[in-house]
Amino acid sequence: MPFLNFGVLFLTYKNVDIVIVGAGLSGLASAILLTEAGKKVLILEARNSAGGRIRSVFDKTGKTYLADLGPTWVWPAFQPVIADWISKLGLQVFPQFDAGNTILDYGPDTEPEARFLPGQQGSMRVVGGSQALVDAMVARLPEGTLLTNTSVNTIDASDKAINIHTGNPDDEIIQAQKIIIATPPRIALKTINWKFELPRELSNGLDMMPTWMAPHAKVSVVYEKAFWRDQGLSGRIASRAGPIVEGHDHCSADGSIAALWGFIGWPHEMRTEMGTEALKLEVLQQLKRCFGKDSPDPLSITIEDWSQDTLVTSPNDLSGPMNHPSVGPKNLRMGYADNRIWFAGAETAEQSPGLIEGAFDSANRVAAQVLSG
Fold first, then answer.
1. Average pLDDT in the 35-62 region?
2. CATH fit for domain 1-54+130-212+312-373, picks 1.10.520.10, 3.50.50.60, 2.30.30.280, 3.30.360.10
3. At 37, is the secondary structure helix, strand, or coil?
4. Mean pLDDT across the chain
5. DSSP for 223-286?
């Protein structure tokens, strides 16, 4: 769902209590908590819509959600933070479908094998997709809180106020008492000109923190019908050959949308050289191999290559492992410049870093720190 750009209200926000850089889950959740506490908040988002790494496939009208292109799973039974936020936002969850056999794909020259594999206990999806989290939070924000198409070029903390230089053509400057950087740590270090010297331990902490999803590409495939369920299959694919190395059923809770999603395991250099359309053909050939050459053609194949997103991925992310990040150093969760500058984002979380719960965990933490400070 597209979001309104409240740029027409920009001039009314020359001075706010708190500026938040980034309208991903952490930035939006922080804004909700702070506005509920009576603070005047402005979110600056470089993209034309909110969500960050929550990105979705929509129908041709651009209004109906079809599938996720970013993170999709939550585990409310084991993640009390996300359970609380789902309740707060009035959303519902449903179990990840995994009834039936998994397709084991060994490559083009080998017949795939159908075998039962146990699912991941407690894996749930949000009704309406991860997009529903974004939509629900944006709807809770006071009008004018979210300013899209506005990047942050420079942060100056030399005076009592924080001066934020935007990337707008007229180089608007916004003043705030405090600022929360809710972008991936490496992106904050790389893209912002800091007009004061960052402590070495902070710079090192930001630089060493991998960004989850950065090296990955994800594909969503929409069908007319979930034919695999009729064949006693879970929709799950495990492959040594790829391009999809891990795939899952991605149908909607009510079954009205039939879809699969998967991680593409081929290296980002190979994906870039091939191009998106060639990669889609490889995906289609693999799906025909896994489900049979007579299986239905998909209605759409959509690929999101996060390695090419400069607001998510830094060069360091492309040279490291593709694993979930570990809990980062405590200096990512400290205040700087007399407690006027704070860092949030899923990678700064003390639990589930990089995951959806990590984003909400960091929001809870940073909001409490800013208010107490």
1. 96
2. 3.50.50.60
3. coil
4. 92
5. ESS-HHHHTTEEEEEEESS-SEEEEEE---TTSSSEEEEEEE-S-HHHHHHH-HHHHHHHHHHH
